[in-house]
Amino acid sequence: MDNHLYTVAQLCAIEASAYAELAPGTLMQRAGAAAAAFAMELLGQRRDKPVLVLAGPGNNGGDALEMAAKLADDGVDALVLHLPGQRDASNETASAHERARAGSVGFIDMLPPDGDWGLVVDGLFGIGLSRPIDDEYREIIAALAKLRCPVLALDVPSGLDADTGAVVGPDGVAVRATHTITFLGDKPGLHTADGRDHAGLVHVDMLGVGPAHVPASQARLGTDAVFAHRLAPRRQNTHKGSFGDVVIVGGAQGMAGAPVLAARGALFAGAGRVVVAMLDPGPGYDSVQPEIMFRPADDVDMDQRTLVIGPGMGGSAGAMRMLARALESDSALVIDADAITLIGASVELLARLAARKAPTVLTPHPLEGARLLGLDAVAVQADRLGAAREMARRTGATILLKGSGSVLAQPDGELVINPTGNAGLATAGSGDVLAGICGALLAQGWPAWEAANGAAWIHGAAADLLVANGAGPIGLTAGELPPAARAVLNMLVAQAADAR
């Protein structure tokens, strides 16, 4: 189903359901044919060059063998390095091997030290890999990294966990593909954590399996459709009060820049008025954006406005007091940065958070999320979806776990992986801008789930726009994001208006 993401267990159930109505080997043959057709598209004008197919011991290797046979039938010079393993192959894989041997596929015993390949195909391991890749395969994967040609992974890049996006094993390795053709449904691991570096461009082929065999999933790959119904042109008869007040609470000594960046994010994302509530004495105005107002935090009324708390806030007693006030308010609330760390260290604050009824969004990076869960960042990164879901369950809030392929989670278990953004966002202050954008959307009446998804999408798309225009990813700065986010938001509104 469109945009749905499936775990390995769910995919095994889909496969079993489909097999109940199909002859043995049908899905493997379809996978081989689909992969061969996709490979022909990738080859383009390079079809006169040989294709190297790496076929492993399991059914993923069977898919690769079927693919090689089909490529050879289509006149492509297909060479197979077959690594059969120590266990007997399945009947389907054995049949695929026979078909490849019976045709014009060439078989080789070792990986050539060099070669002018049109394409290399990774069919070493599929979705079921549960242990790190061992020495023989590690050498092959290391050799692949030196080749200057497209690499197509079948189902998932070998060595990548299809559920989590982590490379399998603490010292594991995985194929870095330029493209992945994945079968029977998309996988979350292709779109978050290490997955975005290893999967390349992802193409989904359902292998002719109909919707009756494919249930809906709680996890999806994000699109702007999640929040498109919130995108509307502004009426002419409005005023600044029509678009909400956002108060950014933070700015301890030496950290005034963080709330200022959040405030600019909120301003450029359409908030009517933006106030920075400084914990410690700081700047009286923003010389770049003088529209932003500044107040001492103790003087700010926290009710009936949208609050973004945490950017540059520190961990002082005053910060704790302001966070407690924010949690007790009836205002929509974005909790970021130091505020998340403070909640993770306090059972009382966590209980206050879980008891809130007003819209609440938390925007942790992996280390802040780890503090909230009593883990370390490595554990969070090893299962980003599971960590985000657990944070949502404990807090009762919408979670936006930042990182490559940001994960959004609801307390009911619903998950979305945001696909926008790039490495340029790995810079100081970009998370502050994200929090401000989310606050602005909440202030304009968006519910928490739509606001979090919209903020993640717009923030990532702003970075993509900057990179497309030559600003980054290296050297992209957080201060460049707010104007780009404004451009993205207005483009989305215009597109939504045209579609209606």
Structure description:
With 500 residues, the chain is an alpha/beta fold. The protein has two domains: 214 residues, 3-Layer(aba) Sandwich (Rossmann fold), CATH 3.40.50.10260; 276 residues, 3-Layer(aba) Sandwich (UDP-N-acetylmuramoyl-L-alanine:D-glutamate ligase). Helix content is 38%, strand content 15%. It contains 16 helices and 18 strands.
> Helix/strand-derived class?
alpha/beta
**What CATH architecture of the largest domain do you see?**
3-Layer(aba) Sandwich
CATH class of the largest domain: Alpha Beta
Biggest sheet: strands side by side, in what order?
1-9-18-17-16-15-14-13-10-11-12
Name the descriptors.
single chain, 500 residues, alpha/beta, Rossmann fold, UDP-N-acetylmuramoyl-L-alanine:D-glutamate ligase
Q: In a nutshell, what does this entry contain?
A:
Helix content is about 40%, strand content about 15%.
List the helices and strands and how they pair.
Elements: E1 4-5, H1 8-19, H2 26-43, E2 51-55, H3 59-73, E3 78-82, H4 91-102, E4 106-108, E5 119-123, H5 135-144, E6 151-154, E7 179-183, H6 195-199, E8 201-205, E9 219-221, E10 245-250, H7 257-268, E11 273-278, E12 293-296, E13 306-309, H8 317-328, E14 333-336, H9 338-344, H10 347-354, E15 360-363, H11 366-373, H12 377-382, H13 384-395, E16 398-401, E17 407-409, E18 415-417, H14 430-443, H15 448-468, H16 481-499
Parallel strand pairs: 2-3, 2-5, 3-4, 5-6, 6-7, 7-8, 9-18, 10-11, 10-13, 11-12, 13-14, 14-15, 15-16
Antiparallel strand pairs: 1-9, 16-17, 17-18
Helix pairs in contact: 2-3, 3-4, 7-14, 7-16, 9-11, 11-13, 14-15, 15-16
